Amino acid sequence: MFEHLQRELRRLAAAQQVSVPIEGDAEGYSDKECPAEACLFQFKIYGDDWTNIVRDEEVFCPSCRHAAPAKSWYTTAQIEAAKEYALGSVVNGLNGAMRADAQASKRRQKPGAFLSVTLAVKEGKDAVLLPVAAAEPMRLRTRCDNCACRYSYVGAAYFCPSCGKNSASHTFLQTLATIRTSAALGGSLREVLGPDEAEVMTRTLLEKAILDTVTSFQRLAEQLYEARTGKEPRRNAFQNIDAGSALWEAELGLSYSQLLEASALARLRIYYQQRHLLAHQQGIVDNDYAVRSGDTTYEVGQRLLIKEGAALEFAGLIERLGIALLARCSP
After folding, report:
1. 10-residue stretch averages of pLDDT, the chain, 331 residues long
2. Distances (CA, A) of 179 to 38, 183, 232
3. How far apart (Å, rounded) are the C-alpha atoms in residues 101 and 118?
4. How many structural domains does the chain have?
5. Is residue 222 part of a domain?
6. Do 216 and 129 share a domain, yes or no?
7. Burial of 34 (C-beta count, 10 Å sphere; 0-12/13-18/19+)
8. Which of 115, 135, 155 is the last residue of a domain?
9. What DSSP string describes 2-37?
């Protein structure tokens, strides 16, 4: 009487695979998540590139560069939805088997028999099996300079998920965008924090913006220098505007004065010296700063006051210098 149900149970007892359809988003990108527990960074890869460019053996996290096989990059939401889909497939299979047994029992009944036993199934509700939906499209998108893989993300991404390469230009411009955002947060902080906390946080973010702006250009210059010369530059050479310019001129005959006007370089020299004070003197002006920067705004013993306009100006000047350097170093 329960032949179909027993057959279905035997089938389920064996190892089973359920194919779960996963949709891309409206722009054709598929959801991925870093499998490293300490990261779990979520991003998307363009569907065609996932098929045609990304290798099955190795995929890289755009945030932490963790590497794992392609089958490891399902998101937490996709895994949970796939479990529901698989459970629905089991329920539907059992419901179908019991309905088939009920129909078979009715067909076996003989009209006019003294005793008849029939199987009736109280209709269970079949699961509706829908493809796993994609998350909303992510606003930030890029294409790898090395392998042309297209991917999107939220926040910041440093590595191509297909080849794992770090793009010097992408990281540089992305970091400057982050610096500009953080430097302009003062108004928002004053709306949600007390006046004292908002002032401390705003000052901290603006001073960090000065530090990070130098670091962003240092990283770009180091990568470009090594790519052009095949040598590593002297340690921290690009933390100093004049030393960095001299290094480029010695190797390639290219100084910063060929890339920016004198007034812009003078402003950069001041900001670079301010970074040095913030990093090593807690922002307290000393004689070296007065001599090297040419800045007459402060007297020795005073502390730097970084304003939003200054942080944004510095980011803009560094962006101009970086883009000019990229143009000269391009093949």
Report:
1. 58 63 86 94 94 95 95 89 72 63 61 55 56 75 91 89 90 91 89 90 94 94 90 90 93 91 96 96 94 92 94 97 90 63
2. 25, 6, 27
3. 10
4. 2
5. yes
6. no
7. buried
8. 135
9. -HHHHHHHHHHHS-------B---TTSEEEEE---T
